[in-house]
């Protein structure tokens, strides 16, 4: 099962490679942390006087997936244990009817990379494999 998970993970990471996921940024003092932003949106808020500087810009464990609070673009993240539970709940019962686009592949890979320490993510594996095999037929 683990080898199979690894194979799917490799495929997902390959698809996800097409999407750019920059590291998250935050508002520095006096706002301090709070939501995540892409650099441009964080800079705009600093320019608007909400904070003195842009903080962050490095990899971060997250309690869920990570998007810029202002523009919604995908940001780089890895999941905490809680984050895995919450994302798994999000995808529970989801059928991947369409091709797995790069952004979805990114989210799924962040979950499946926990297959060793949180094997419950393997519940997703059959549905993801089916979706990936349909994509193979299309190409
Ligand atoms: Zn943004």
Mean pLDDT over all positions: 93
Supply the number of structural domains.
2
Radius of gyration: 17 Å
> Which sheet architecture does the biggest sheet show?
3 strands, antiparallel
Small molecules in complex: zinc ion
**What is the assembly state of the chains in this entry?**
single chain
Order of helices and strands: HEEHEEEHHH
Q: Structural class of the helices, strands and pairings?
A: alpha+beta
The best one-word shape is elongated
Strand content is 5-15%
Gap between N and C termini, in Å?
26 Å
Count of DSSP helices?
5
Poorly predicted runs are none
**Helical amount:** 40-55%
List the strand order in the largest sheet: 2-1-3
In a few lines, what is going on in this structure?
By secondary structure, this protein is α+β, with helices and mostly antiparallel strands. Helix content is 43%, strand content 11%. The site of zinc ion (ZN) has 8 residues, from helix 2.
How does this structure look, described?
Helix 1 (2-16) runs antiparallel to helix 4 (102-112). The protein has two domains: 1-19 and 81-134, no CATH class; 22-76, no CATH class. The chain has 139 residues and is α+β, with helices and mostly antiparallel strands. The chain starts with a helix and ends with a helix. The strands form two sheets. Strands 2-1-3 form a three-stranded antiparallel beta sheet. Strands 4-5 form a two-stranded parallel ribbon. The protein has five helices and five strands; from the N terminus they run αββαβββααα. The structure holds zinc ion. Zinc ion is lined by residues 37-38, 40-41, 68, 70-71, 73.
């Amino acid at each position: 099962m683990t080898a199979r998970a690894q194979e799917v993970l490799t495929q997902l990471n390959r698809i996800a490679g097409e999407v750019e996921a920059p590291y998250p940024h935050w508002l520095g003092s006096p706002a301090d942390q709070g939501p995540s932003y892409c650099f441009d949106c964080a800079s705009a808020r600093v320019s608007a006087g909400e904070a003195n500087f842009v903080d962050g810009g490095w990899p971060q464990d997250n309690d869920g997936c990570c998007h810029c609070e202002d523009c919604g673009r995908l940001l780089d993240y890895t999941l905490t244990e809680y984050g895995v539970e919450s994302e798994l709940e999000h995808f529970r019962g989801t059928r991947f009817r369409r091709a797995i686009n790069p952004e979805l592949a990114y989210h799924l890979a962040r979950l499946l990379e926990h297959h060793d320490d949180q094997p419950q993510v393997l519940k997703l594996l059959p549905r993801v494999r089916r979706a990936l095999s349909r994509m193979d037929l299309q190409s």
